[in-house]
User: Fold this.
Amino acid sequence: MGLIVQKFGGTSVANAEKIHLAARRAAAAKAAGNQVCVVVSAMGATTDNLIDLAGKICSFNGKEIAPPKREMDQLLATGEQVTIALMAMALHAQGHDAISFTGGQIGLVTDDAFTKARIQSINKQRIQDQLKSGTIVIVAGFQGVTPDGHYTTLGRGGSNATLVALGAVLKADVCENYTDVDGIYTADPRIVPSARKIDRISYDEMLELSGLGASVLQTRAVEFAKKYDVPIHVRNSGNDHEGTWIVAETPNMEHIVVSGAALKKDLVRVALKAVPDKPGVAARIFSDIAQANIVVDDIIQNVMDDKTASVTFTVEHGDLHDIKPVVDRVVRELGGTVSPTYQSDLAKVSVVGVGMRSHTGVAQRMFKALAEAKINIQNITTSEIKISCIIAKEDGNRALQIVHDAFDLAHAK
Ligand code: ADP
Ligand code: ASP
Ligand code: MG
Assistant:
């Protein structure tokens, strides 16, 4: 007898019929002799709609405020709470025992970084007691509570994190991530129609792809899966095809030089000009930004003749509201003389593969393909297993298709 944790994303529980189909899948796993725990997302576009609504409410009398983060989480946590109850009802209607729990009800405790909280602990006893008695347990994804009982959410796509965290604490045999595509593809199939489904991919490659824009899995969830060695099987909730397994790297994975390509849209370049050029400045800038829970990338520092430096970096557009006050304060305190600037029309196209460690010529091939398509590369960053180019946002989709073709990713090697 095994233990399976399944997660159904928003599109897989978008209406009553789909909730029944998901319930049927959970029941089938139970009938096959497993203990089954199910994580669900909010129905369809619920989370997006709630975010829009908060934006409308916070625009008042000609003024606009950023929605207070604690209240945002209070609001967003409602989405998943609807789905857990409906999913448990669907299972009852199909003749099975099921019980739903919110994050708080299973003691899923997080820090207090509202809207991007990190999981600290889960009290698995309550779930295990139910599983042992043969009940299917339904858990609200994406949400937790602080030690003082405030609702928190785990960042967009955070139900993935709930899935993997439960998989880790319950020592699940597998985490099944049910979504609206057949698995992980060589690129987003919505943008690159010729993208090919990958059978197996390493945690490290998936970590890079997620961080570089493959939103099918949240980066933090993959980090967690790697740390606790939890295998994830990404599958389509609409069919029974074998999906993609995300697993520890095996020696034969190195033969594939490039496994996939990804695109991140909506990046903003922040430029701090004329900050003093002395030790500790970069540390100061980036520690303040990190404290605000904002991830930065593509950092470039140039030293000028007049003993000042310019520091530029990119952030996601969604972080713009939060980063402006932090950057303004740092520049003021460092005695900078020029106001920071924000350039909003950027994207990043990347290729990822563990085989890059032992193969040369990847960067050159990528740059040549982009050059032939007259796409200007504004900045380049690399790691052992990825190459990224910052480009104009308007070139994004085309660039993804071009690098996908340049490495012939549509055809299995
Ligand atoms: P869910 O609601 O099930 O969590 P998401 O919309 O968050 O689903 O993620 C699934 C989507 O991720 C797919 O529809 C696809 O467009 C997108 N995606 C981006 N990159 C990839 C990739 N490399 N492989 C598969 N899907 C991808
Ligand atoms: N409902 C949340 C979101 O849309 C969490 C998730 O679906 O994973 O981001
Ligand atoms: Mg998702």
In short: Residues 9, 157 surround magnesium ion (ligand 3) (CB under 6 Å). The first strand starts at residue 3 and ends at 8.
